[in-house]
Write a structure and sequence with these properties.
By secondary structure, the protein is α/β, with parallel strands linked by helices. Helix content is about 50%, strand content about 15%.
């Protein structure tokens, strides 16, 4: 080994050993200014967290990993302050303040007024097993939790700072630098494999094709000061609500990113945990809330990038000298899993466009959502896009009469035109697209058929129906609750039944009937749809 390399390694190892010595000394309850009966230590590749019961103390490791540099006390103090400030955006009830650690390495004192030998972020402690990855393993992370997370992330993105076009935040050059850093760090720890070389070649080709869109979105305000690290282990269920914490404070480049890159992290991690239905429920919930369907063109690129981010972290962790053998083996297993997932995420299925058809209460939305989750599809809903066109929230009540206002002929034509426009833009992504709308007129259905034909996509109509008494009961219940985007009343339903245009004989060849008596997500319906969509549509991994 070159002498300079030996010297550099020694310089790095001394601060790390000092950190380990401090952490060991801090496991004495007398170090803390409050009662402590038990101390638990959690290690990551960049921090050590001490759980003391009421409070958790997070201490940054004195490491330089290229994408972060914690090698001086002043840098660690500044990053601690940034961590508290930034995480209060999503978790104000968790992040309290930054406390100095005084005394000596042998006898440290947390919160000491003397000269600081280290700093820690003080947080209110929550149960370590309340993070979403732990909930998934126990089977207690529900669809309602996913919906809550999707809407809260969309709301967070709507209110955070937007990067000025004059900055280079989120520029194509910075995006590509982050991509290359993944490959460099993984190769440095594990060696360059054939799969990594393939993934880098794929990433280079994708980036070349998307470079213009990356710049367009940067100038369009989609690069914002995001969380930056929104995987499942960084979201905790607190008081029944998913709360993102532990955002990236140490790198502007990794925090000021396109919002769809942030969304891709959560989607990727749900996929890695085998929760594909929840992954696409989250994605569609976010897209429905934000309206950012243009971001889907970047989604596959960012899904692969995010899988390799996790592979990089696992590689760094596996290479740390203070790691126990079992933890090192686990990190290497994670590295292999995420590289495999990245490879799977590069695969594209055949383009396909599905539309529903049916009157209000026939189960279209339930069917469309179930199919989107099962097939890994992007969903569009007419009731939501109709309101969005008029600057209204999805659940806003307009009080419009039958065939008037938002539901008049002109507004309806604009709504179906918007659905066709969105479907046309989404199909090149090669995720299946499902449009949830009544499509009671032949011209409306033919317009979407034309979109599919022009895109070289397969076309399928899912025709939903139910007995009249079932339709009326569903509409009445929905109207009473008043929390759905649909404003249909029984009077609207009766008008739809009178004026709808049944599928013509030539349309039936591309149609599958779905009766109300069948469960919305039934294996039978899904099986029929899969059988009709060849090649297969499940392009995202299970």
């Amino acid at each position: 080994m070159h002498p300079a390399a030996t010297s550099s390694r020694a310089d790095v190892s001394a601060p790390v050993a000092r950190h380990a010595h401090l952490v060991a000394a801090l496991q004495a309850p007398a170090c803390f200014p409050h009662p402590v009966s038990r101390i638990e230590v959690i290690e990551t590749h960049i921090s050590t967290v001490l759980l003391t019961g009421e409070f958790a103390y997070k201490i940054k490791k004195p490491v330089d990993l290229g994408f972060l540099d914690f090698t001086t006390l002043e840098r660690r103090r500044r990053c601690c302050e940034d961590e508290v400030r930034l995480n209060r955006r999503t978790a104000p009830g968790i992040y309290i303040d930054v406390v100095p650690i005084g005394g000596t390495l042998e006898h440290p004192v947390v919160g000491s007024g003397g000269p600081a030998i280290e700093y820690a972020v003080r947080m209110r402690q929550f149960a370590p097993d309340s993070t979403l990855d732990a909930l998934l393993q126990r089977g207690t992370f529900s669809p309602a939790h996913v919906d809550d997370l999707a809407s809260s992330v969309a709301a967070f993105h709507a209110r955070i700072a937007v990067a000025s076009p004059e900055t280079r935040h989120g520029s194509p050059e910075r995006v590509w630098a982050a991509v290359l850093d993944n490959f460099r760090q993984i190769s440095a720890h594990e060696g360059d494999t054939a799969e990594l070389a393939r993934l880098q070649t794929w990433s280079e080709a994708e980036f070349a094709g998307l470079r213009g869109l990356l710049e367009e979105r940067r100038r369009g305000g989609f690069v914002r000061e995001c969380h930056g690290d929104l995987h499942l282990r960084n979201v905790a269920l607190i008081d029944g609500r998913p709360v993102p914490f532990d955002c990236i404070e140490f790198s502007d480049a990794l925090r000021w990113i396109d919002v769809i890159s942030e969304v891709a992290f959560s989607v990727m991690d749900l996929l890695e945990h085998g929760a594909r239905a929840l992954a696409f429920r989250f994605l569609n919930g976010y897209l429905e809330a934000s309206g950012d369907y243009a971001g889907v063109a970047l989604l596959r690129f960012y899904l692969v990038y995010r899988a390799l981010v996790r592979a990089k972290i696992a590689a760094i962790r596996a290479g740390q000298p203070d790691l126990q053998r079992q933890a090192r083996m686990q990190a290497r297993d994670e590295l292999e899993q995420y590289v495999r997932l990245a490879g799977t995420l590069t695969e594209r299925g055949g383009a396909s466009l599905l539309i529903t058809s049916g009157v209000s209460g026939s189960g279209k939305t339930s069917v469309a959502r179930s199919l989107a989750e099962s097939l890994g599809a992007i969903g569009l809903r007419s009731d939501v896009e109709r309101k969005r066109l008029h600057g209204l929230a999805a659940t806003a009540r307009t009080g419009a009469g039958i065939g008037a206002g938002l539901y008049g002929p002109d507004a309806s034509a604009a709504t179906y035109g918007r659905l066709a426009e969105l479907a046309r833009a989404l199909l090149p992504s090669r995720f299946p697209v499902i449009v949830d709308a009544a499509f009671l007129r032949r011209t409306e259905r033919d317009a979407l058929r034309k979109v599919a034909r022009e895109a070289g996509a397969q076309f399928l109509i899912v025709a939903c129906n139910a007995p009249p008494e079932v339709l009326r009961e569903r509409v009445l219940v929905r109207e009473r609750v008043g929390q759905d985007a649909s404003e249909a009343t029984v009077a609207v339903l009766e008008r739809q039944i009178e004026t709808r245009e049944p599928l013509a004989p030539e349309e039936l060849a591309d149609a599958i009937a779905c009766e109300a008596s069948a469960a919305a997500g039934s294996a039978a319906l899904l099986g029929k749809v899969r059988a009709r969509l060849v090649p297969r549509t499940d392009s995202a991994p299970s």
